[in-house]
Amino acid sequence: MRYLLIFISYLICYQAHSQLFTNYNSSNSPLPFDKINCIAIDQDGTKWIGTDKGFAALLPNEEWKVYNKPNSTDTLLTKITAVTVDKQGNKWLASFRDKIYLFKLDKAGNYLLHNEIPVFQNKNYYINDIAIDHSGNKWLATKAGGVWKIDTQGKWFCYDQSIVLEFMTDEINAVAVDERNEVWVASAAGLWSTKDGKEWQPYDIFDNITTVEVGDKGQVCIGVSDKKGRQKLYCNDVLFKLSKDVASNKYFKIKDLTIDREGIVWAVGTGIARYQKEERALFDLNTSGFTSNLATCVEFEDSKGVLWIGTADQGLFRLGIYEKKQEVQVDSLSGKRPQIVLNPNAGNLNLNQVKVKPAETNIEEEETEIASNEATVVSVKPETTPPPTYSTEDSLADANATVTLANKTIRKGEIINLENIQFKKASYELSSTEGVETLLMFMKENPEVHIELAGHTEKNPDKDHPDYKRLSKLYLELSQKRVETVAKYLINRGISASRIITKAYGGEKPLFNYSTERNRRVEMRIIKIK
């Protein structure tokens, strides 16, 4: 396992050249407040900065625009919790002042409109993050109200545990959209993705996902805080193991991520973490200019090769990681001395070569909803028939007998994976009848054959998973209904129910000990041939 270097330190030197941080705070600039919650950078290079006490923009010419005009909508721009820029250059920002608002500003930062976020069921809809998909839909991550989507017609859609059965919490920390228009949702109990909100895909990590970031080369990176408070960083299906000192530090937290032009991942929180593909990091504590251990957000300005870091106590920091000239340091008024680098070891890995592997997604919907889809959906269990009994003579008679299914010779007791029997996503409705028709013909051509059908789903989560009981029960029910669908299909077409036994295992017996669709299957075992 390669190691991600985490350093709770206050200087990063890049390519053997000392890099100093420039600090903008409320004492040396028009920044309205030193607690910064979010940053977004538009196509012109303007930095849009949300603080706990107002909104401001740092223009490319180093001039500032502060939203503090009295008797205007500026008075609603108090605590800014999230900001993003759409492809037209419009700014979307979330504000909290007794009520929660979503604002839209034009390319120049002029007010266009705002909406009050609807609140019901006493849930907290405080907006943690905003992302915009390729169609222009706005996706909002809320504190305790699930995920909201606002489409291009202004219609609002709420996705919470009452709508999406896979959701294990309504506490959503972050949201991001990748180059394939996949929407990634980071929650306090796992990671999901969707393209349209109709189908949701959970992934096999169930801890608190503190942040999610996507790159333009297929990277999907997440910051994770596990049940013991340990911090982890995943990019696609690769875990970057933190140094022991940092991983065991209960005060270390990953708050935000960004990916720069070289594919290097930057994580900020209680310090700064850099993952670099090929080069070892260099340090010089004596010339450090980063004097906060409360970083809250980070953005990379590609046109200038500059990293911008927001903090909860000392305003905004600028680090020119790809600039030829050296940064000019602005002296901090805090007088704090740099802290110590915990582990100066860097890891190497090409992020572009790995892909995210999803976990089981076909968790059962309510039976009444699925059964109403089409006439071919089966919601009635096969007739209750006691399992057939077989004598010793029966066993001896067919011990060496064989039958043939799809050009494959099968003996008694042999288990066959019925690969052509497939189901629709999130349903026990057959996606086609081809596979089950093949089985029907086999049963008709071999009238003495008795079979056992076994249903399997994706593997169950670990038993220490907080939602293990619910998920394993759902998997078991889904496998039972799917195998009953196959049995009912055969019975309704003339096969005696006494020739079929059904069993359901849910996720207890996966073929592979990782997430793969090949775990989701119906198996057949020959019980009797003659």
UniProtKB/TrEMBL annotation:
PANTHER family: LIPOPROTEIN YIAD-RELATED (PTHR30329:SF21), STATOR ELEMENT OF FLAGELLAR MOTOR COMPLEX (PTHR30329). The keyword Transcription does not apply. GO terms for cellular component: membrane. Residues 411-530 form the OmpA-like domain. Pfam families: OmpA (PF00691). Residues 1-18 form the signal peptide. This is Outer membrane protein OmpA. Keywords: Membrane, Signal. The keyword Membrane applies.
